[in-house]
Amino acid sequence: MSNAVEEYLTKNQMQFESFTFDVSDEDEGRAQAEKLQLAVTTIYKTLVLKGNKTGTVIALVPLDGRLDYKKTAKASGNRKVGFPPMEYVMDVTGYPHGANTPIGIFMQHKEYSQVFDTSILNHEEVIVSSGELGHSVKVKVADLIALIQPIQADILAV
Question: How far apart are CA 5 and CA 2, in angstroms?
């Protein structure tokens, strides 16, 4: 059974492949990805931040990457960004922690700034959450970028 994100991708004739595995825990996600013979470097997590000028900012970074706050703030037009309380995340995205999806958030909130780390350009396809805990989709990077039209910047900590 498909969810809203998968239905949206189908409606927009975007190819995708569905996966069910937990990426909320980095080690468990890595183990499950290896079991499915997926490169963990192609799994991206969706982070919800709050900027001091723009409000909600969505950042897409590799599962094993660490976000650099200053780089993300600059890329998104803020002086600073930070992780808001979980209640804020649920209120502004409609998704619980661990289920945030750049596609689903884009569907509901096109006004939010989305910043994708430039490492995404090293891949033909990536895996992102499809909006439900434990459910993900593999999509072509070119399609994801064409759909969301995110800011692309180096936002990883070194």
Answer: 8
pLDDT of 141 higher than 90: yes
Sheet holding 16-20, edge to edge: 16-20, 135-140, 125-132
What size, in residues, is the chain?
Answer: 158
The model carries a pTM of: 0.90
User: Is the separation of the CB atoms in 58 and 89 below 8 Å?
Assistant: no
Kindly report the backbone phi and psi dihedral angles of residue 128, in degrees, each rounded to the nearest multiple of 5, phi listed first: -130, 160
Q: Of 81, 56, 60, whose CA–CA distance to 69 is shortest?
A: 81
Q: Summarize the chain as % helix, strand, coil (round to 5).
A: 35, 30, 35
d(CA 43, CA 26) in angstroms, rounded, equals: 10
The 10s digit of each residue's pLDDT in 125-134 is 999 999 998 8
